[in-house]
Amino acid sequence: MAFGRPKEWDTDFLKREMLTWAKLPNSLNINAFCCSLDPEIDPEYLRQLVNKDPDFSRVYRIVKAYLCTRREQANSEKLLSDAAFKSALRHYDLFLKEDWKDEETFKSGLKAIEEGIKQPVNVIITDYSKCASEKA
C-alpha cells in the first residue's frame, strides 16, 4: 500500500473537487482546500498546475471568485475580520488585483520621475570661452 501524496494528481478530479469545495458555505481559503484532501496536496503543486494547465487555471480563477464573494460576505457580516479580509484581497479579487497592478505601475513611474528630478545633474564645460561670451 502506498502512502503520501500521489506523484501525479488527476487534474480532472482536482478541478471537480475544488469547485465542489468552493461552493461549501464555510470555504474561505484555498489552503483549507489543500488540507481537506486525503492525502493533503501541496499548495505549490496547485500553483504549478495553474501555470501549466490553462483549463486548471480557469477553474482556479472561478474557485477564487467563489471564495472572494464568500470572504466579502463574511467580512460584511463581521464573521471575518477586516485584517483577515484585506490581507488576502489581492489574491482573491481579480478585478482589484488588476487595479492595484495599474496603481503600482503608476506609483513606480512617479517615483522614478521624482528620483530623476532629485538626482544632481553634472554639467561638464569643455570650452570656457563660450561661457564667457554667452554671459556678456
Textual characterization of the structure:
By secondary structure, the chain is mainly α. It has a domain at 11-103. 70% of the residues lie in helices and 0% in strands. It is built from 8 helices and no strands.
Largest sheet: none
Helix count from the secondary structure assignment: 8
Please give the number of β-strands: 0
Give the low-confidence spans: none
Residues in β-strands, percent: under 5%
Instruction: Identify the overall geometry.
Output: elongated
Query: Termini, distance in Å?
Result: 96 Å
The residue fraction in helices comes out at: 55-70%
List the helices and strands and how they pair.
Layout: H1 11-22, H2 30-36, H3 43-52, H4 54-76, H5 82-87, H6 89-92, H7 94-118, H8 128-135
Keywords:
elongated, 136 residues, mainly alpha, 70% helix
